[in-house]
């Protein structure tokens, strides 16, 4: 055969001996293609070979920005199957992604949908994100506080899954409150109230939504670079100028150790700053639930109490720190400390509570239950976990408490499950409290008849009582920004 006349991409074009059998030739070609990062499509334009890219990451190699973009673009167009994206995610989970790869993954997921331009809305737009915990209702207080101080808050939140609660489920426990606004309405509400609280729309980082669903069923959730890219792709798409991060650490957090939490915080800050967004993170304690209540309406009720100057100390301490940081990044103060004082004044004056009610009404909510929380319907059943001996509560397992709340109906085991707005837990005692045998530690609320036994078993395993009082642990341990890590 005259090789000068063969078409590019044919068997002979690869330099294969034409005397070999067709089967042998095809095997060799397959091996050449499989080990090539770039192959040719029908139009002779170069495209990347997904198998080779997966192999590179499997073998601890580095992928370029263009290669990662190709994988995400192809998956977004349904031209890369789930099984290949799953293989890439597992390779990334096992071998990690460096800073350049994490940035490329974030950028690719960010640009898989709309990136909002809010430049026509006056002010520096600032949002806050928590990495998830038990009893974490901070967004409900923080958004109206910051908005009432003149800083726009475009907040896109998520739902609860597993042991952690979701801001959207809490908001929707207010009768009529709608979180499913489209982007046009999102802008209108933000313009009018200086804040808006909605869920992720189909236009915002759709690749992230699909990839997260894969991570959830392929055991690749707990990966720092994958978590960071997922969080930041959504947040950057909101149209924000700055971001405050609450990175939880402890038994009720995804990051169980300080080192894991610090790595995640540093990665999140690095990505934010790389995209030109002022970003500050705090590492906060999640070894016990935040506040006194866990559950959707119960946490709204506690948030209302906080906005009316009657919130738990830990909730208000963290709220004012995060709000003060947002107010500072929003250009309203020279220091974070001054921002904290503005935050406290917004609560003390009643401005923040008024702002919350106005937003709830705008998004369809019945504000009468905010004015009179006791008018809200109660659960059918209540039962208590009692102290099994005298002593001090030395430790809680916040994860087990979150799972108990799920059994009561406050959370979902699958994304399709409904949540009961009145189900949940009340932390009658907290870490460090002295108790006597038979005293109530935790009170449970549910509409399910058959969960008392399993819930009590979970809660008993979550409580440690000791003869000596424990050393108090700080609620906020570290601050992370572009200048590094500082003890708080």
What does it look like?
The protein is of the alpha+beta class and 488 residues long. The protein has helices spanning 22-34, 50-58, 65-76, 82-95, 99-110, 138-148, 167-172, 183-193, 206-217, 224-237, 258-274, 296-307, 313-329, 336-348, 351-362, 368-371, 398-408, 452-462, and strands at 38-40, 46-48, 126-130, 153-157, 195-199, 242-249, 278-285, 293-294, 381-386, 391-396, 424-427, 434-435, 440-446, 463-466, 476-481, 484-487. The protein has a five-stranded mixed beta sheet, with helices on both faces. The protein has a four-stranded antiparallel beta sheet with strand order 8-11-13-9. The relative contact order is 0.12.
Task: Give the topology.
Elements: H1 22-34, E1 38-40, E2 46-48, H2 50-58, H3 65-76, H4 82-95, H5 99-110, E3 126-130, H6 138-148, E4 153-157, H7 167-172, H8 183-193, E5 195-199, H9 206-217, H10 224-237, E6 242-249, H11 258-274, E7 278-285, E8 293-294, H12 296-307, H13 313-329, H14 336-348, H15 351-362, H16 368-371, E9 381-386, E10 391-396, H17 398-408, E11 424-427, E12 434-435, E13 440-446, H18 452-462, E14 463-466, E15 476-481, E16 484-487
Parallel strand pairs: 3-6, 4-5, 6-7
Antiparallel strand pairs: 1-2, 7-15, 8-11, 9-13, 10-12, 10-14, 11-13, 15-16
Helix pairs in contact: 2-4, 3-5, 5-10, 5-11, 6-12, 6-13, 6-15, 10-11, 13-14, 17-18
């Amino acid at each position: 055969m005259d090789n000068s006349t063969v078409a590019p991409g044919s068997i002979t074009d690869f330099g294969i001996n034409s005397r070999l059998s067709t089967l042998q030739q095809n095997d060799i070609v397959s091996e050449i293609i499989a080990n090539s990062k770039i192959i040719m499509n029908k139009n002779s334009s170069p495209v990347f070979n997904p198998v080779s890219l997966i192999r590179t990451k499997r073998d601890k190699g580095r992928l370029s920005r263009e290669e990662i973009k190709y994988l995400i673009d192809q998956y977004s167009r349904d031209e890369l199957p789930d099984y290949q994206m799953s293989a890439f995610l597992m390779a990334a989970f096992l071998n990690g992604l460096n800073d350049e790869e994490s940035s490329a993954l974030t950028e690719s997921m960010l640009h898989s949908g709309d990136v909002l331009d809010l430049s026509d809305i006056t002010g520096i737009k600032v949002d806050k994100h928590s990495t998830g915990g038990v009893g974490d209702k901070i967004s409900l207080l923080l958004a109206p506080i910051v908005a009432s101080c003149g800083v726009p808050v475009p907040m896109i939140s998520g739902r609860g899954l597993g042991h952690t609660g979701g801001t959207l489920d809490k908001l929707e426990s207010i009768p009529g409150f709608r979180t499913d606004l489209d982007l046009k309405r999102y802008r209108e509400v933000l313009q009018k109230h200086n804040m808006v609280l909605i869920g992720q729309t189909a236009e915002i980082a759709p690749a992230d939504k699909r990839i997260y669903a894969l991570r959830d069923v392929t055991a690749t959730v707990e990966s720092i670079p994958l978590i960071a890219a997922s969080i930041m792709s959504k947040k950057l798409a909101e149209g924000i100028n700055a971001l405050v991060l609450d990175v939880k650490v402890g038994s009720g957090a995804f990051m169980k150790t300080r080192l894991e939490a610090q790595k995640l915080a540093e990665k999140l800050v690095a990505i934010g700053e790389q995209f030109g967004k002022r970003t500050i993170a705090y590492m906060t304690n999640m070894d016990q639930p935040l506040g006194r209540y866990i559950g959707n309406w119960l946490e709204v009720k506690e948030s209302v109490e906080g906005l009316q100057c009657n919130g738990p100390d830990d909730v208000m301490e963290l709220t004012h720190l995060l709000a003060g940081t947002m107010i500072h990044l929003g250009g309203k103060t020279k220091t974070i400390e001054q921002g904290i004082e503005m935050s406290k004044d917004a609560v003390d004056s009643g401005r923040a509570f008024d702002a919350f009610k106005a937003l709830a009404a705008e998004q369809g909510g019945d504000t009468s239950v905010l004015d009179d929380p006791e008018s809200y319907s109660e659960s059918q059943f209540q039962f208590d976990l009692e102290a099994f001996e005298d002593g001090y509560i030395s430790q809680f397992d916040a994860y087990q408490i979150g799972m108990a709340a799920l059994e009561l109906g406050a959370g979902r085991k699958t994304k399709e499950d409904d949540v009961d707005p009145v189900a949940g837990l009340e932390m009658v005692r907290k870490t460090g409290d002295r108790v006597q045998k038979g005293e109530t530690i935790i009170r449970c609320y549910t509409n399910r008849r058959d969960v008392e036994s399993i819930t009590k078993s979970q809660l008993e395993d979550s409580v440690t009582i000791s003869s000596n009082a424990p050393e108090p642990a700080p609620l906020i341990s570290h601050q992370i920004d572009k200048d590094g890590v500082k003890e708080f």
